């Protein structure tokens, strides 16, 4: 049984940073395409960042240059470092095994507000 547990969200001021974590069990993240998605109120869920087993990454244009997706194979955990946060980044962030029928985490709330 695959389980993805996100953590690290919270309230942060504009310009601040957060590091989200996704601890996985039941899968090995280093051999899967792993991704972070987000969903803001009233909007569709959208891809934020994706990491392949070979280390290739891609980012949404809205976060490119200020976000980094990475993984720690020893901890079987995927991370999303986000810097220069702005109110438009406010959303629930989800970890996902990026394949058809892939598992989702429960999400972690990120709120950017002064």
Kindly describe this structure.
The protein is an all-beta fold. 0% of the residues lie in helices and 48% in strands. It has no helices and ten strands. The chain has a six-stranded mixed sheet, with no helix packed on it. A hairpin with a 5-residue loop joins strand 5 and strand 6. The protein is globular, with a radius of gyration of 13 Å. The relative contact order is 0.32.
Please state roughly what percent of the residues sit in beta strands, choosing from under 5%, 5-15%, 15-25%, 25-35%, 35-45% or over 45%. Answer: over 45%
Count of DSSP-assigned helices? 0
Strand order of the largest sheet: 2-10-9-4-5-6
Quick one: how many beta strands?
Answer: 10
Segments where pLDDT lies below 50 for 5+ residues?
none
* Biggest sheet layout: 6 strands, mixed
Look at the structure and give the mean pLDDT.
Answer: 96
In terms of structural class, how would the helical and strand content be classed?
Answer: mainly beta
């Amino acid at each position: 049984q695959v389980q993805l547990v996100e953590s690290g969200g919270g309230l942060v001021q504009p310009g601040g940073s957060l590091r989200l974590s996704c601890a996985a069990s039941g899968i090995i993240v280093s051999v899967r395409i792993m991704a972070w998605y987000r969903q803001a109120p009233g909007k569709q869920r959208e891809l934020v960042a994706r990491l392949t087993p070979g280390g290739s990454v891609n980012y949404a244009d809205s976060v490119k240059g200020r976000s980094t997706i990475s993984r720690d194979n020893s901890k079987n955990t995927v991370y999303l470092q986000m810097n220069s946060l702005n109110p438009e980044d406010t959303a629930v962030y989800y970890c996902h095994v990026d394949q058809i029928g892939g598992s989702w985490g429960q999400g972690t709330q990120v709120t950017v507000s002064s």
